[in-house]
Amino acid sequence: MDSIRIQQDDFSIEAEVDALREKSKRIGGIATFLGCARDFSEGRNVFSIEFEQYAGMAEKALFALRDEALVRFDIIEARIIHRVTTVHAGDQIVLIVVGAEHRKAAFEACEWLIDELKKRVPIWKKETTPDGESWVTEHP
Q1: Does 35 reside within a domain?
Q2: How large is the average pLDDT for residues 56-85?
Q3: 20, 35, 36, 50: which one has the fewest Cβ atoms less than 10 Å from its Cβ?
Q4: Number of domains composing the chain
Q5: Is residue 137 part of a domain?
């Protein structure tokens, strides 16, 4: 199972954590971020969210983020999975799992990864609301 994936299918948090733990017995702290679809955003009901990517570039950007996190933080491993499909309220969208010897580094790297993913990775979302469809997030 690759540490970086962009996929349509849902994912298993447990399987991703297990895959991370297999990397090293030095991992003592694991931090996770799970992004889920909401049914309400910016004062509007949301029926669904569609995610699209700049094929090839999005995965490349995720690999670069992971590599940078491994250098920047005192972590042992990081996994990032992002779905590109149509999701509904409660569905899983993105998962980041970070393993380190100690919890502080895992938490810091996990927060940095989701913040940077939203800034740098060319994945866009379109919400369907009672007022119609609209693209929500701009990326470079």
Answers
A1: yes
A2: 98
A3: 36
A4: 1
A5: no
Is the pLDDT at 139 greater than 90? The verdict is: no
Cα 76 from chain centroid?
Answer: 18
Contact 45, 38 (CB under 8 A): no
Instruction: Establish if 88 belongs to a structural domain.
Output: yes
CATH number for position 41? 3.90.1170.40
Q: Determine the pLDDT at residue 136.
A: 87
User: Tokens for 28?
Assistant: 């003592």
- The per-residue b/e assignment along 3-15, b for 16 or more CB within 10 angstroms, e otherwise, is bbbbeeeebeeee
Phi-psi category of residue 132: left, alpha or beta, with phi > 0 → left and psi -120 to 50 → alpha? left
101-126 tens-digit pLDDT? 999 999 999 999 999 999 999 999 99
